[in-house]
Structure formats: structure tokens, C-alpha cells
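Re: the 462-residue chain
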Amino acid sequence: MASMGSRVAGTEQRKPLVRQLTQKTPLEINSPVGKIMPACAGDHPAIHHFLSNVFKAPVAAADFNNQLDNPTYEPSNRLLVRHGSIIIAHSRVIDREIQFGDQQLPVSYLTEMGTIPEFRGHGVGTALLGAVEQQMQLNGSTVGVLRTTIPHFYAHLGWSLCTTPVKSVAGAHEILSHLIGKQRQQEAERAVNPLNEPLKQLNIRLWRHVEQDALMRIYQLNTGSCYGAHIRTEAAWRWLFNRRAFDQIYVALESSEKIALGASLHSIIGYAVVKSGRVVELMVDQGRTDVRNQLLQRICSDVIEHQDKHVTIDAQADDVLHKIVLQSGGERVSLATPGLEVTMVKVFDPLEFTRHIRSSFRQRVRDANLSFPCELGINLGTERFQIVCNQRSTRLLHGKLGRSYLSCSAGVLSQLLLGQCNISQAIKQEQIIPSTQIASETAQALFPRIPLWFPSLDDLPA
């Protein structure tokens, strides 16, 4: 089995989130064939060799060393299974904070989990995953996240698929033709009135290191209230830039003239990170559709020049970029595509996670035009609780259900809490059993679909 607080002038600073660490002693668990223990710095050469062999692709020494330079990295973030002196399985955990609406949540990412072929099918991977989940919770995380091409392995161990489509693809020529046609149409419409100013042609060029703060400002502006975006510290941004897992970073400026060093923070109004025809991250100042379109035009032109055919967009599900791709004859990348890397999540303590986000329930009730008090019970079989919303507060009553409640598994509740569950479909498939019609309607209000998006830039292979 193998699966591969920032400083910005003029912007509001996010309050750093403090993890509640509960680990007292080093983790040490038995697997069917050996002990699972945290790695130490002396294990790095053997781990590098292991990863290159298991994933059947050489891991460049520079890329491996870059992992060690990550400001949050600790050797103990890696868990190893040894048979004698040989490493037979490995995993790495990355602790991060994400934005979840108006909340900040501690999460842990699982990556580089693999077992050598000779020991697969003996329960080693399952035991290692159990140790990983324990490590994540000891590190104070409420949610685990991973990307994998073998979701079936993780699904039977309680991990849930993120159902939000975040990728789309179209031909570079088709996107460019669509954008140019749209621009010409806008120019023709504006030319009818001589008082209209002509559309401005922006200066699109490659990014410079001294402009780091400008990209930080735009990223924070775009992700301050979204769901899933990483909260990147200044040190994390520096690590991303120095690691250079991307091919290019383009920036958009209003003027073609040179700008003063300190003036670049607001002179740059958009940026795009690109790797092999994939738009990994593209963000612009609010309301600047022209910036988005001109950045994408430049990207498509360069892709065509390098004789590549397609452009892939990786962005939030409701990003206008996906609409541009679809209008250009492209399509959303289906989660059912064979071999596609998908994102999976696991909420370790659903009741505790519900407490984390309970402040959002009242607004959801108002948005759905339901009346107060609003009550919904959750029956997990071994555990039950009731959500009670009134106009001033939200309470969780442990051990109580009430008349209107949902019966479901912990995995389905995880999807509900993360906004990744189609409730109507889950009811038809009997994954959710509502006690009343009111329970079904209340669930639709309290657990709406959420455009969950975990940025790929932080995890790009170099």
C-alpha cells in the first residue's frame, strides 16, 4: 500500500491558534510485525532510500532536504515500522491550521504513507494508520486530511471522501480564444460610449522575491472566510518560495513602470502559481475580473508556446476560473476518474468538532428561514447528543435526542460537519435515517454543502 501568522502591512492580523497538545510520552505501538515508533534525525538517510524504493520514483535529495527545512518539521512527525533494523513502513504527519468560515481549526495532513511489498496484506498499514491517527490527536488536531489514489483502503477505516470538485481542464487554445473573444466584445461595447475609458492592459510578469508581502496580502484577502485554506505564516511563505516546487509565479500590476520597493504591496493586484500547465493557485484583488482574465491569458500563451495542449485549474469550487474553463469547452475533473488523487478527511471527535463550529448554526438557521428554537438530535449508536439553537446561543446536550433526530455513522456525521454530504442522496441510500420530516429539513439547514478546498501549493512535489 502506498499513497503519496503572517506579517503584512495594512492588513488585519489573524490571531494565532494554539494547539492543545496532550502527548506526555513518546508514541510506541506494536504492529503485526514490529514496533511503530517516531523517527529521529539519524533515520533520514534510510527514510530517503525507503521512499525512493516504495514509491518507485527517485526522491531528489534536494526535495527531501527541503522537507527538513519546513519551519514546522520535526523528525518525530514521521512514524516508522521496523522489522529488525529494516524500515518496512513509513508515514509523515504535517500539522497545520486551516480557515473554516470564521473559525480556525488545527488539522494534520498524512503524506508519504507506504509499506514495502513483502509486508503488504499483513495489517501493517492498518496498524500504522491507527498510530498516525493517535499521533494527530495527541498533536491537538481535530481533523485528519490526506490525498491518495487508493481511497478504498482509507474508507473502510473511517475516512471520508471530499466530494467538492476543485479541478477543471480545457485546451489552452480554447481558453485563450474564449478570453480574447470576451475581451473584444467588452471593448466593442465600451466603444459605443466615447466617455468610457478603454480597457487597461495590465503588466503581467514573473514574480520577484522582494514582492512576497504582496502575495501574502492577496492570499489573506481571498481566504479569510473560506473553508479549508491553510493559514500560512511568513516563515511558511518563505519556505514555499525557496522550495520552488512550481515552474512560474506570475504577478499582475496596474503599471508597466518600475515601482518602488515598498510600494509593491498594493501595486500587485493578482498572482498565479503554475506548474506543468496546472494553475495551482490564482488569486486577485476583489472585484478585479480583468486581472484574473489577463493572468489566465498569459498562462495559456506560455503553455501553447511550450507545446502543451491543456490547462488544468485547481481552485475553490465556486471560483470563476472553473466557469471560464466550462465556457471554453472544458470539463470538471470527475472524482471517479481512475487513478485520480482524491482528498479524504476524518473528524476524530464529532461531538468536539460540533462544539468548535456551533457558533455558525444560528446564522444557518436564519439563512434557511427556520424559526427558533431549532433542535436536531444526532444518534451515532454508541453516542447521542442534541443541537439546540435559540436566538442568542447554541447548546449541545449530551445523551439527549429529542423527537427530531438523525441516525447515522460517525463517518457520515464527519461529512455532514465538513459540508461534504448530499443529505437527500444519503437518506435515499439509508446512510442517514431521519426520525421525522422536520429532522430532514433541519439537517439541510444546519449542514449545508460547503466548498471545501485545501490548497495544493503547500504539498506540490518539487
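The CA atoms of residues 156 and 411 lie 10 Å apart.
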